[in-house]
Structures are given as C-alpha cells and as structure tokens.
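Researcher: Please predict.
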Amino acid sequence: MSIESAAPTTEPGGATVAARPTGRPPLSEGKRAERRLGLLLCAPAAIIIVAVTAYPILYAVWLSLQRYDLRFPADQVFVGLANYGTVLTSGYWWSAFGVTMLITVVSVVVEFVLGLALALLMHRTLVARGLVRTVILIPYGIVTVVAAFSWQYAWTPDKGYLAALLPDGSAPLTNFGSALAIIIVAEIWKTTPFMALLLLAGLALVPDDLLKAAQVDGAGPWQRLTRIILPMMKPAILVALLFRTLDAFRVFDNIYILTQGSNGTGSVSMLGYDNLFKAFNLGIGSAISVLIFICVGLIALAFIKLFGASAPGSEPTGRR
C-alpha cells in the first residue's frame, strides 16, 4: 500500500518544513503477516466454494445460449441471446416478475416492522426471557414445506379451520387476490422470527447509557427509536433486509404447495421450474435461471450501495 507524498514547503522565513504524508500509513510487518495468515486460512474454503458453485453457474449460462429441448436432444443448436429475447418479450415472465416483486416488497416491509417490534420485545423482556424468545422463534423452526401444507389444509373448503370462517363454497386458494394474500401471510408468518433474530443482534449495538441520557434530555420513545436506535442498528438492518429480500425474491416452496402457480400466482422461480422440469426446455429454463441470478445480484448491489457506509468494515481508515 503506497503513501502519497508531497514536496517540502518553504516558509516565508526560509525554513523548510517537511511535507506531511497524505495517504494511509504503511502496514507494519505484523499486520502484513496477520493479513497473509487470514488469506491463507480463507483460501481453502474459498476454493471449494468457487469449485462447487462456478461450474453449475457457467453450465447454466452455456445452456441458456442453446436451443435445447430434452424431448428432441438431437436438435440442440447454439442460438446466442435468442432465449433471453424470448423470455424478456414474453408476458409470462413479466407477469411472474410482477407477482414476485409484490410478494417481496410487501412481505419484507411487514416482516421488518413486525420483526423490529418482536426484537424490542425480546430485548426488553425481563421475565421468562428465554421462554418468550423460544415461542417467537417456533415458526422459523418449522420446515417451510410442512408449514405450507398446514396453511393449505387450513384454507381447504369443508376441512380447514380457517376456511370454516368463510361463507360456504369459498375457495380462497383458487382466486388470484386471496391466494396471493395467503402466500404473503404464510411468508410473513414463517420468516418474521428470522428478521427479529437478526434485529435483536443489532439492538446489542445500542448502548443503554445513551438511551437513558436521551430520555433524561427529554427525547420520547419515537425520537429515541428514529434518532438513536435505528441509526446505530444500520449494519444489522442491512443484513436482515438483504437476506430476506434475496430469499423472498426466490420464493418457491409456499407457492408450489399452496397454488402450484395457478391463477396467475406463479413467481419467476416457478416459471423456471415449469420450463425446466415440466416442459424439459433447458434453454429457456436456464435463461430464466440466469435472469433470476442477475436480479438477485442487482438487489444485493442496490442494498450495499444504499447501506454501504453502514456495513461493518466499510468506513475509510482515518489519516494519522
């Protein structure tokens, strides 16, 4: 790491003043050794991760450039970006993309609000704190497919306990609006505890002395929340929102169990599944998978750009 240098300056009296270094100070030999050791320790895991993930990704990209239908394997032809053009000009893709964005935005926003409330509750609970945290985390401990089947049964006409609250003959999972609402509620119920768990860790970053001092100065609960707690929780908020947004955008299991993507409730992951495993169209299905990968990467980049200054280790090193 280099240091920027400036030429010596001469004062009016003729004395020469040594220039101050304008860059970062050089790393000591000990720091360099620690950095090399860290890279060496991380290298095996990084190599394995790249080896395991790089091949499937590259193979999916290669398949997306082919016209490849498993029903007619001899007709495989390189078509370049034609599959992407077919997907991006298809109404099925944009309909599934709109449904996916709606599920993602609504579920993540509601989960953040509820998760923050639950995190504050768990953080401030003085009696039976362990029991409260265990009860709140129960939904997250249930396998997603099992939870989805329970929601499906609950809304099944003439059988489900929630369907019994509706007029006779009502089948909410066969209607676009009500089915989408049930999918979103199932997502919120299942993953709000995960959001609360991450935000609870962020609350540990907020000093109690600072909150007490603000309270003495006359700051109300809302002011303490918006002016102190949330700004100091930004690293945890980044992790919670990023993880949940990426997970929600790839929603598949709840939709697959509850509606099978019927009545316009399919997500982009469902669309990719239908093309790959039902239509056996590896070219179009791989193009959809690559587009999902690109969307996920853009979402991650947007979050890092938005909260980048709050990410741990992202603050610039001060000059000495």
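Model: The beta strands are 9-10, 16-17, 66-67, 77-78.
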